[in-house]
User: Which sequence fits this backbone?
């Protein structure tokens, strides 16, 4: 299965590389509709689509809240080399400092959004975002290659977003934020207290030097990898930071992370109330039966 997936992705990269005109894209399935900019960040700035979620799995996104675009849209990834850094997206959603291009490829029930041709100070960037059309998880795979001809020092990568799923319908921009782990198991979540919608970023690459954080809209990958930051609940950003150290000429590193979108499960007290309600309804139904 992995070989089939790898072949499909490679074929898609070759096909997309042969195209000259690419731009922001929006893709959708049964549960998720999301946008990806030409810069590779999670926002289609043309349609103003970030991430929408339909918990019914019917692909109906009309009126559904967007996790990213309300207020000031904020989603990004950053690269750092030799102590300097830049950001794709962030405070300027269409900002594309790595001059990358993005396109889509569909195959076997899976959509691939492929960003290629990115480069920062001799560090080549390729990114593949994929999701099963019947899934609530967005998979991201990033490949960094040193094409500078020399050693690149102090290489880091950061990615994050400001979740605002309660802005639509409730006018609330704060979320309940929690860090689930660090290192190989790094993850961070943001829950909308009113909508019950939650988004979780989690490290899937097995990369040990990974830091999950809750921060005040930081995009600096050196900040994101310097230590754990947790400013708690509020209108804050969630992020993952990856520290690689020095990369030798020709060296290649691959990392992966997921965005998992869910609707909250009712608390035990809610189940109890439902059961009581069902019991009362059953009792009344029995009373209505003729003798």
Assistant:
């Amino acid at each position: 299965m992995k070989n089939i997936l790898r072949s499909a992705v490679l074929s898609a990269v070759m096909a997309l590389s042969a195209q000259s005109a690419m731009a922001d894209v929006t893709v959708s399935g049964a549960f998720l509709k999301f946008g990806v900019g030409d810069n590779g960040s999670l926002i289609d700035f043309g349609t103003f689509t970030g991430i929408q979620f339909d918990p019914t799995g019917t692909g109906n996104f009309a009126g559904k809240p967007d996790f990213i675009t309300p207020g000031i849209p904020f989603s990004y990834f950053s690269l750092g080399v030799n102590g300097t850094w830049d950001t794709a997206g962030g405070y300027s959603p269409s900002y594309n400092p790595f001059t990358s291009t993005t396109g889509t490829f569909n195959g076997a029930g899976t959509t691939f959004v492929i960003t290629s041709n990115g480069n920062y100070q001799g560090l080549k960037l390729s990114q593949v975002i994929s999701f099963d059309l019947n899934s609530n998880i967005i998979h991201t795979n990033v490949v960094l290659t040193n094409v500078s001809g020399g050693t690149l020092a102090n290489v880091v990568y950061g990615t994050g977003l400001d979740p605002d799923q309660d802005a639509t319908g409730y006018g609330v921009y704060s979320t309940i934020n929690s860090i689930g782990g660090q290192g190989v198991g790094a993850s961070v979540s943001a829950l909308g207290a009113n909508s019950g919608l939650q988004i979780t970023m989690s490290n899937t690459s097995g990369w040990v030097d990974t830091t999950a954080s809750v921060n005040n809209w930081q995009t600096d990958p050196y900040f994101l990898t310097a230590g754990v930051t947790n400013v708690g609940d509020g209108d804050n950003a969630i992020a993952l930071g990856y520290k690689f150290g020095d990369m030798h000429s020709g060296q290649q590193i691959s990392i992966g992370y997921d965005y998992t979108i869910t609707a909250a499960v009712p608390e035990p007290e809610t189940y109890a109330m439902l059961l009581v309600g069902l019991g009362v309804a059953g009792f009344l139904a029995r009373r209505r039966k003729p003798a």
User: Anything to note?
Assistant: The CA atoms of residues 78 and 220 lie 7 Å apart. The longest helix spans residues 268-288.
